[in-house]
Amino acid sequence: MKKLMFLLRKEFRQIRRNTFLSRAIIAVPLLQMLLLVPAVTFEMKNIDLAVTDNDHSPASRELISRLSGSSFFRICATPQNYMQADALLLAGDADMVLIIPDDFSEGLAGATTPRLQVLADAVNATTAQLGWSYLVSVVRDYNRDVIISSGAAPSAIPGINVSPRFWYNPSLNYKYYMLPGILVILITAIGLMMCGLNLVREKETGTSEQMNVTPVKKWELIASKVIPFFIIGLFDLALGLTVGWIVFNIPFEGSLLLFFACAAIFLVAVLGLALFFSTMASTQQQFLFVAFFFVMIFVLMSGIFTPTESMPRWAQQFNLVNPVAYLMRINRMVMLKGSGFNDIARDMGALAILAVTFITFAIWAYRKRA
Amino acid sequence: MAFVKKEFLHIFRDYRTLIILFALPAAQILIFGYAVRTDLTNASLAVLDNAHDEVSNELILKLDASEFFDIRYHLTSYDEIDPAFKKGQIKAAIIFPEDFAGRLTREGNAAVSIIADGSEANNANLVTGYTTAILNDYSAGLTKQLTSAMPVIVPEVKMYFNPNLESHFMFVPGVITLILILISALMTSVTIVREKEFGSMEVLLVSPLKPWQIIVGKVAPYFFLSLVNVIVILLLAWFVFGLPVKGSIALLIAECMLYILLGLSIGILISASVQKTENAMFISFLGLMLPTLLLSGFIFPIENMPKAYDYVSLVLPPRWFVEIIRSIMIKGAGFSYIWKETLILVVMTLFFMFLSAKKFKVRLGEGGK
C-alpha cells in the first residue's frame, strides 16, 4: 500500500509537470461545455421558403402573408417559373418552394379543387418533413378560416385542440437535453483517451519495461496508472457540471451523490477499456485510432441525439454492452427528471456488471502482455 | 521513388492502423445507415382516458396502430404519470378529458393534452408532432364529412433529391469528409512529428534527399490511401444503400483530391509547428475532427446554431467540402453550382501550402545548424 502511495504521488507529479496534459485537464471540459453545448441542436429556425404566385389574387396574397407571418418561414425569393424554382433548390438557396397555381382562388371559390404544389429539398429528411408539416398546418388554418368566413359551414366545425406540455424541460431547451450527454462524452474522453495515451506512451518510450523489472507488483503498477485518471475524470465532471450550471443555468433535479456514483462506476468501465486497448496498441497513434473507433461507435449508438427505440433489434442488443448508452440515460434521468435510486437501479446494476467485467478482463489481458 | 516505396511499406506494416482506417468508414456507414435513425418508431406511450367514449377509444386505437407509437400503459390517474417518466418507461402521456366525444360534437372543440418528456427534447418534439398530425387527420375527416360542399385545399409535396426521405443521405458526405481529414491531416501530422521525436527525421535531413522530396515521400502514401478510402466509401454507399453518385464521378474525385491536398498541407503545417506526438494529436483532434463533426453541418444543421458558429464555420474547410459533396452526390449538381465553394477550397489549400512550406524551411534551417 505504501508503495502504491509513492507511485501515485509520482504519477500526479508527472501529470502536473506535463504542461500539455495539465492544461488539457482544465481546458477540455471548458471547451466541450462552451463550444459543444450551444452548437448541437436540432431546434428548427426559419425555413427559407420561395414562393411562386401564379394566381396573383387576394386569396393567394393572404396565404403568403400568413406563411411569412408564421415563425417558421422566411420568404426568401419569388421565382417566376418552375425552372427558376428548380435552380434555387439545386443551389441550396431555398429549402422549400411553394407554387400557387393560377386557378387557386377560383378553386377556393368552389369551381375546382384548390391545389398547392410544394417542392422540398429533402437532403436533410428530418428538416424536410418538419417543414412540410408546418406548411400543412398553416394552410389548414387558413382553409378553416376561409370556410368559416364564407358562412357556408355550420358554425361549429369539430376540431381537436391539442395542447402539448413538456415536463422537466418546459421550453424544450436543447441545451438541457444535450448537456448531460456531453458530460458523458467528456468523461469518456478523459478516461479513455488520456489514460490510454499515457499508458501507451510509457510502453513506447520503454519506461514500462523498466517498471516491470522493479519489485513493484503488477496490480500496484496498474492501479497507479489508472487511479489518477479516475480522480481527474471525476474532477472534470464536477468542473463541467459547474460550467453548465453557471453558464447555461442547467437544472439539477436529482441527487448529486447518485450522479457521481454512477459516473464513478462508468469511469471504472472506461478505464478498463483504456487498459485493454493499450495492450493492443504499440504506438500512441495506433491507440488513438482504436480508441477513436470504439468511442465513435459507442457514442453514436448511445442515443445521444437520436431515439434508441427506433434502432433495429441488433443495435438495441449492442447497447446492452455499451456503457455510454447506460450513462447517457442515467444522466438525463437524474439531472433533468430527478429520478432516484429505485428508478435507475436496473441501469446502474447493469453498468456495474459491465464495469467489473471490463476491468477484470483488462487487468488479465494487461498482465499477460506486459 | 524508392523513398515513397519505403513509406508505403511503413504504413502497410502497421496493419492495425490500416484495418482501423478501413473499418472506421465501413462501421460508420453501417451505423448511420441502419442504427442511427433520426425518426421515431415504436415510442412507448401512456394514455389516461377519462372519457371512455367511442371517439377517445377510436383515437387510442389509431395512435396504437401507427408505426410511431406503442401504447404500453393505460393509466387511471394523473399521479401515475410522473413515476412512469422517472423510470423512463414512457416518452409521453396523452390525456383525454371527461366527456370528450360530447364536447367534440356539441361545442365543436375538445382538448387533448399531451405531456411529453422534455428531458429528451428531440423525442418530445417528434412525439407531439406525430400525435398532433394523427389527431388533426381525424378532425379533418370530420370537417370533410360536415362540409363536403366546401373547398378543401389539397397541398401536394414533392421531396426533391431524396424522395424516400432516407436519413443516410445526410451522413455519407459527412463520413467522407471525416475520413479524409482523419487520414490526410491527422495521420500525416502524427507520423512526421513522430519521426521528429525519435530523431529519424534528422537522419533523413542529412541524406542526399531534398526537403521537398522528403515531404512528398511522406505524404504521397497518405494521398493514395485517402483516395482508396473514398472509393471504398462510395462503393459501400452504393451497394448497401443504393445511393449512387448522381453527378459526375470524375468531378467528385477531383474535388476529393483537392480536399486531400488541403488536409495534407494542414497536416504538414501542424507537424512543422509542434514537437510532440501527443500535441499533434490533440491539435488535430480539437482543431480538425471536432469542427468536422460539429460545424460541417453533417449531423447538426448549421442554420440552427447560434449565429457566431455560422460565421466561424465560414473559415473552416469541411463546411464547404460537405456542401460540394452533397451537391454532386445527391443533387447531381454540375460544376457551375459549386465553383464558388471549390474556389474557396483552392484558396485555402494554397494558403496552407504556402504557410507550411515557409514553416518547414525555418525548421530545417534550425536543424542544419
Low-confidence stretches of chain A at least 5 residues in length (pLDDT < 50)?
Answer: none
The fraction of residues assigned to DSSP E strands of chain B is 5-15%
**What series of H and E elements makes up the topology of chain B?**
HHEHEHEHEHEHHHHHHHH
How would you write the strand order of the largest sheet of chain A? 2-1-3-4
- Average pLDDT over all residues of chain A: 84
The arrangement of helices and strands of chain A along the chain is HHEHEHEHEHEHHHHHHHH
Report the largest inter-chain contact: A-B, 115 and 114 residues
Largest sheet of chain B: 4 strands, mixed
What integer is the average pLDDT of chain B?
Answer: 80
- The computed structural class of chain B is alpha/beta
Sheet with the most strands of chain A? Answer: 4 strands, mixed
**Structural class computed from helices and strand pairing of chain A:** alpha/beta
Structure description:
The complex is a heterodimer of chains A (370) and B (369). With 370 residues, chain A is α/β, with parallel strands linked by helices. Chain A has two domains: 2-41 and 175-369, no CATH class; 47-150, abc type-2 transporter like fold. Helix content of chain A is 68%, strand content 9%. In chain A, helix 1 (2-17) packs across helix 9, helix 7 runs antiparallel to helix 9 and helix 10 runs antiparallel to helix 13 (323-337). In chain A, 45% of the residues are buried. The model of chain A has no long low-confidence stretch (mean pLDDT 84). By secondary structure, chain B is of the alpha/beta class. Chain B has two domains: 2-35 and 167-368, no CATH class; 43-146, abc type-2 transporter like domain (abc type-2 transporter like fold, 3-Layer(aba) Sandwich). Helices cover 69% and strands 9% of the residues of chain B. Chain B has helices spanning 2-13, 15-35, 54-65, 81-86, 100-106, 121-146, 168-198, 200-205, 211-241, 249-273, 277-295, 307-314, 317-331, 335-368; strands at 43-49, 69-75, 92-96, 109-117, 154-160. A four-stranded mixed β-sheet of chain B has the order 2-1-3-4. The model of chain B is unreliable at 365-369 (pLDDT under 50). Chains A and B meet through helix 2, helix 4, strand 4, helix 6 and strand 5 of A and helix 2, helix 4, strand 4, helix 6 and strand 5 of B. Strand 4 (115-121) of chain A pairs parallel with strand 5 of chain B, so a sheet runs across the interface.
